[in-house]
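Lab manual, section 2.4: Encoding a predicted structure.

Procedure: take the sequence of the chain (198 residues), apply the prediction step described in section 2.3, and record the output as structure tokens. A sample record is shown.
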Amino acid sequence: MFPKSVQNLIKEFSKLPGIGPRTAARFAFSLLRKPDFELELLSKAIINLKKETLICKNCFNISEKELCEFCSNSKRDRSTVCVVEEAINIPAIENTRKYGGLYHVLGGVIKPREGIGPDNLNIKELISRVKSGNIKEIIIATNPDTEGETTALYLAKALKPYNLKITRLARGLATGSDLEYADEMTIISALSGRKEYI
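Recorded output:
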């Protein structure tokens, strides 16, 4: 129905999470109406996304340098580490202005049906950080869905031998919800009401 170039763009947009064929088509037709310079800006931003983005060698957050803005900030509390599924979860916690520690990005959650186990996540690296001896508390901030809870339970058991305070965000977050979509007050409540985990 559409020219091949439009079909190809719709196909590529449809590969993005949460984008179905209709939304992808709306994106494609919206871009058709944009002036050339805006399309060039968009294409440069996409190309530079991978070229100019690094993964923090300490916590696996996205960064423009070897260490992200949190790991390189000497004012952050280095005794507390908040463990999140993905880097996209960090702004939700930062926006509360109630947390001043460091982060650790797992890079996903345990999903046995999809073949994703603990070895596919940044769990060994978290344990290495804990072994350094500076960390006193781990806050597990995985999403309160089945995979997030499974991952949280695995982390709690894996970290238990290291004599740490292990907490989980309180139940201000509804089961099945995503951290990145939670409002600030809900996250503040979850942070302040966290309890020791196991």
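Check your result against the sample. The mean pLDDT is 91.
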